[in-house]
Amino acid sequence: MPGRNGPPIVAKLLPKVMGSMLDFGSKNSLRSYRMYISGDMMVFDDIKDIPKRYPGVDLALLHLDGTRLLGLVTVTMNAKEGVRIMQIIIPNKAIPIHYNDYDVFKSPLSDFKEEIERAGLQEKIIYLEHGDTYKFDSEENNQSG
């Protein structure tokens, strides 16, 4: 999946990144559950190709840390970009992750919650505390066919 840290010029100086798409299935079906994992990245034009190539995302795991380089340039997805990627990918459900693991992260979960409510997407979000788990069943949760 496409991924990029920061604006194009800054991205050339930073490590390469990527997202991942996982398709789960069984012997009885080609695909019964689709999971998108954003990775540490920004939203940019190439992200718009993801739903064209991989429609019907059941669950998106969104890295929402808002890391800023030298305190000036945002190089990873923040709360507003988290909403933007949800509007592009259109997952059935999403779980925000990787938002408070390091001191350099500048986009707290509370910012994401506010942006999600403004966008009217709160019914699509699953919030987990550290140590919580989310169980999905690829056979029962096939919402995207």
Provide key terms for this protein.
145 residues; alpha/beta; two-stranded antiparallel ribbon; 21% strand; globular; disordered C terminus
Please describe what this structure looks like:
With 145 residues, the chain is of the alpha/beta class. The protein has helices at residues 8-11, 50-53, 79-89, 109-119; strands at residues 20-26, 29-37, 59-63, 68-69, 73-74, 93-97. The chain has a 4-stranded mixed beta sheet, with helices on one face. Strands 4-5 form a two-stranded antiparallel ribbon. It is globular. The two termini are 21 Å apart. Mean pLDDT is 85; it is low at 141-145.
Q: How big a fraction of the residues is strand?
A: 15-25%
Helix proportion range: 10-25%
Shape: globular
CATH topology, by name, is Metallo-beta-lactamase, Chain A
- Give the number of DSSP strands: 6
Give the C-level CATH assignment. Answer: Alpha Beta
Summing up helix and strand content along with how strands pair, one would put the structural category as alpha/beta
Number of separate domains: 1
Strand order of the largest sheet: 1-2-3-6
CATH superfamily: Ribonuclease Z/Hydroxyacylglutathione hydrolase-like
Mean pLDDT, as a whole number? 85
| Second CATH tier, the architecture | 4-Layer Sandwich
Radius of gyration computed on alpha carbons: 15 Å
Termini, distance in Å?
Answer: 21 Å
Order of helices and strands: HEEHEEEHEH
- How many helical stretches? 4
List unreliable stretches of 5+ residues: 141-145
InterPro entries: RibonucZ/Hydroxyglut_hydro, UPF0173_UPF0282_UlaG_hydrolase
